[in-house]
Amino acid sequence: MGNCLKRNQTQLQQNQQCPKCLMVFLAQSSALQYQQHVTNCRVRQIQNPPAQLRNVQVGDVVIEPNHPLNPNPNPNPNPRTTPHYIQEDFQNRKQKYYWCKELLPGSKIKYKWNKKLSPPMPAANVSEMLALPWVQIKNSEFPIKQTWFRLQLEKKRIPWQQGAETLSVNKESFLMTTLNMYKEINWHKEVKVHIDGDKVLDAGGLLREWANLIMKEIIHPESGMFQIADCDDVSYKINCEADTDEHIIDCFKLLGIVVGKCIFERIPLNIYFDRSIIKHIIGQPIFLEDIYYYDRQLYQSWDFLVNNKFEADDLSEYFVVYRQSKRDYYELKLGGQNIQLDMDNCQEYVNLCIEYYTYLSVKPFLTAFLSTLYSIIPKQLLSLLEPLELEMILYGTPFIDINDWRDNTDYKGAYYRTHQTIQWFWEILEQLDQFNLAKFLQFCTGSTRTPVEGFRKLESNRGNCSKFCVESVPFTKASPYPKAHTCFNRLELPMYETREDIEQHLKAVIQADLDGQFGME
C-alpha cells in the first residue's frame, strides 16, 4: 500500500504547462495530477469553447483590457506566475468545504458560522474565469467571488523575479522605523522584513509578525487612535476625539498600508474593526443595524426612537451632539440647537447622528486610512464584496477546528500519523481551549487564525500552499523545546520519550508571552 501511494505521488521534477489552458504545474506537483488535468482539459475544450473576452460595465465600474484593474493588453495573468493557491481551485475537483459567516434568518444583526460545500468554479481555467461578467461574479457565492477577487489582485502584483523591497525595522522602535520607511516601498512587490542587528531571514513569517505588531501598536488604547467598540465581539472603532496632528494622520496611513498588504498577501488579521469601518472600505452606506457593532447603547437608544411612539414633551433632545474634547455642541443641521426632536423628525435625527459618529467626526482619520488602503487594493475591487464577506477575507475564522488541523498536517523525518509522539501531540492539543489553541497556532504560523477554507489553505510566501508540518528532531537537554518556522508553518518537535515530557514543553511554549517577541525564528 505504501509503495502504491508513492507511485501515485511521483513528482514532475520540473514545471510543466498544460498544452490546452496553459496552466502551469509546479515541479512538486504529482505527475498523476498533471496527466488527469490535461485529459480533462482536452475534453472540456471540445465541449465548451473558450469564452470570448468582453467589456463589462456596471454603474461606474468598468473593467476593460486597458482598465487600471487590468493594465495588461492581455487580460489574463501569465499562467507561469499564477500562484498555486489559485491554481488549486481549478485543479482540485474533489468536494471542499469552507466556513461562511451568515446572518440568522430574519435578523439584521445576529449571525452564525456555517460549514458549507464550496461550489464548483464557473470556469475551467484562469482565462475563462477572468472573462466572466462582473455582474455574474457579484451575484456568485463567496468562494467564486474570492477566487475572482484574488485573480484581479494578482494582476497588480510585481513578480518577485523583478526584485523585492526590504523593510528594515528596529526591535525597540519598529513603529517609528516603519513610519520612516513605508512611503518609499512599492507594496505590490514582495516585501521582506529585516530586523536591524538580526540574522533571521524573512520568507514570509516575519511579514505576518510585523503586520500584527504594527496593528497592536496603533490600536493600543495608549495611542488614543482607537476605542473598544461596545458590542458582543472585541472590536475597535476610530476615536473621534483623537488628535489630528501629522503623526496621528501618518499612523492611520500606515494602518491602511498594513491592512491592504494583509489583504494582498492573504494574511488574516488578529484584530477586528467595527462594522462602520468595514462598510466604508467597500463603499456601502451605514444603517442603524450597523451601529449595533459600533455602540450597543447608541443602537438601543436610536432603535427605540424610530420604533416607538412618544409625545414631543417626553424628550428634550435637539439636533446637536456634545463634543467632549472641544466642550461644545455640534449642530447636526443648520439651526439644530433650536430644532427639538419629535415623532416627525426622529428618523432624520438618527440618520444625521449615524453620519456624524461614523463619518464626519472621524473624516480626517478615515480619509488617511482609505487613501493608502486603496493604493494597494482598488476600491472597485473591494466594492464586489458584502460586509460579512470582507470580514471573512480580513479575519478568517475566529475558531480552530482541531480535526481539520489534524487532517491537513504533514509529517517529516521519523514522524508519521500514528507515531506515538504524534498521538500524544494531538491528544494534548485536543484538551486545550480555543484561547490556548490560538496562541499555539500563532507560535507555529505567525497568526491566530486560519482562512475560511481551513488548514488546507495555509500558505508560505509567494502563494505556495504550505500545510502545517511536524518534523522530528532529537531531544536534547540543551534544546528541549519545540521550535517553529512561521515562514513555512513548520514545527520542529523533539522526540520526547513520555507523554508528560511533551505536555510539559508544549504548555511552556503556549504559556509564554509571545507578544512583542519579533523575529522568533
Structure commentary:
This protein is an alpha/beta fold and 521 residues long. It folds into four domains: 2-154, no CATH class; 160-286 and 363-395, Alpha-Beta Complex (Hect, E3 ligase catalytic domain fold); 288-358, Hect, E3 ligase catalytic domain; 402-511, Hect, E3 ligase catalytic domain (Hect, E3 ligase catalytic fold), CATH 3.30.2410. The protein has 19 helices and 17 strands. It has helices spanning 2-8, 31-47, 84-91, 126-130, 134-138, 142-154, 174-181, 205-219, 246-265, 275-282, 296-307, 346-358, 363-376, 379-382, 387-395, 402-407, 420-430, 434-445, 499-511, and strands at 16-17, 24-25, 56-58, 61-63, 97-103, 111-117, 165-169, 191-195, 226-228, 235-238, 272-273, 320-323, 328-331, 409-412, 468-473, 483-485, 490-494. The model is unreliable at 1-9, 43-80 and 515-521 (pLDDT under 50).
Main sheet: which strands, in order across? 14-15-17-16
Number of domains: 4
Shape annotation: globular
Measured between the Cα atoms of the first and last residue, the distance is 37 Å
- Which structural class should the secondary elements be placed in? alpha/beta
Calculate Rg over CA atoms: 26 Å
Report the sheet-strand fraction: 5-15%
Query: What's the total helix number?
Result: 19
| Estimated helix fraction | 25-40%
Annotation, overall tally of beta strands: 17
CATH architecture of the largest domain: Alpha-Beta Complex
Mean pLDDT: 83
Q: Can you say what the CATH homologous superfamily of the largest domain is?
A: Hect, E3 ligase catalytic domains
Spans of 5+ residues with little confidence (pLDDT < 50)? 1-9, 43-80, 515-521
Q: Largest sheet at a glance? A: 4 strands, mixed
Main CATH class of the largest domain: Alpha Beta
CATH topology of the largest domain: Hect, E3 ligase catalytic domain fold
